[in-house]
Design a protein that fits this description.
104 residues; Arc Repressor Mutant, subunit A; 4 helices; 12% strand
């Protein structure tokens, strides 16, 4: 069986979604997103750089929190996913795996 890898967009989306549910520690983010620490750390740093996530030091631990921009991005991703899911599920995808534009 072929293992399908998630795109960077999917990795970012998964992290943002899990964080929007209140998960904020690196260990729990790794478990909930099914990512290794090295991959999670790389994506988190990108999200911090783009101001979607910020890090707070709580005691001796780092805690990651969504910024307002991160919450907005998460809502937008979820809205787009909900809109496109029926199209993908219905099989209305062209042979080249691009979406078919339908006249409405």
């Amino acid at each position: 069986m072929t293992k399908v890898r998630r795109s960077k967009f999917e990795l970012c989306s998964d992290i943002l979604h899990v964080m929007s549910e209140g998960v904020s520690t690196p260990t729990q983010l790794c478990y909930r997103t099914n990512m290794s620490w090295s991959v999670l750390y790389e994506i988190l740093n990108s999200l911090i750089k783009e101001n979607y996530v910020h890090v707070e030091e709580v005691g001796k631990r780092n805690v990651y929190k969504l910024t307002p921009e991160g919450f907005t991005a998460t809502r937008n991703i979820e809205r787009i996913t909900a809109t496109l899911s029926p199209i993908v599920a219905s099989g209305r995808v062209g042979a080249d795996k691009s979406f078919v534009i339908l006249n409405q």
